[in-house]
Amino acid sequence: MIHDPPPLSARALILDLLDTGAPPDFSTGELVQAGAALGLEATAIRTALTRLRQEGRVRTLDRGRHTIGARAAPLQQRIQGWRRVEARRQPWAGGWLLAIAGPQDRADRTVWRHTMRALDLEGFVEAETNVWARPDNLAGGPLIRDRLRDLDAAPNLLVVAASGLDEARTARFPALWPVAALQAAHGQRAAALAASAARLPDLPLAAAAAESLLTGRAAIRAILRDPLLPEALCPPAALSALIAAMDDYDRRGKAIWARYLAL
User: Fold this and answer.
1) Membrane-spanning residues where (predicted)?
2) Domain edges within the chain
3) Is the dihedral of CA 72, 78, 81, 82 positive or negative?
4) What is the C-alpha separation between 198 and 12, in angstroms, rounded?
5) CATH 1.10.10.10 fits domain 10-75
6) Considering the entire predicted model, what is its pTM?
7) Which residues contact 25 (CB under 8 A, 6 or more apart)?
């Protein structure tokens, strides 16, 4: 079962728009206009923009337009690659990647929150106390340390490849992911995209822009949070169908936003 996303904050809206890279930059006026479609006040957009610039997540270009900043660039690259996520899979030889957290990793709540998000985005689940696991079936497996670091995971997080697990773990680990629920949620998300696409032509332009952003955002989040399990653990058809549905929906949404921002 899928749930409606919470209201979008000014901060999240700005980063979402900049993360798409199409267009690659926005003026303050365009961001304020985008906020209006979502019911966000101009002051909220301007305040969020200032704070994001201070954090290095947004930078201002010479011509007074804003684009993604260095601190947000790794996540932007990940988001822009949603169409290609399935290419990360490779044949699975039965090995595992383990991420092991120590007390120092949990000491800073902000760092630990970022660590949990990074582990989730890379498909890890908690297998036992302080140990997160995922199948070692992604291209460039050893590079996962860099991917976790780029997502602001704790720098001392221990990530190791493991094989030859004991019989109990070998039996238990493949069942850590709720595969049936994940596939059902992907199917429901693809159906939601189709239903929204049918509605969009009849909506006022601002309402259509808001709906296309929120609906597309939820679908992309679902795609990026798919753990990309080996086919032996989770058949890929549901994810493939969701990506195809989002590819079509994305074109519709971009056309709507181009018209809306041109007003």
Assistant:
1) none
2) 10-75, 89-175, 178-261
3) negative
4) 26
5) yes
6) 0.90
7) 18, 61, 65, 66, 67
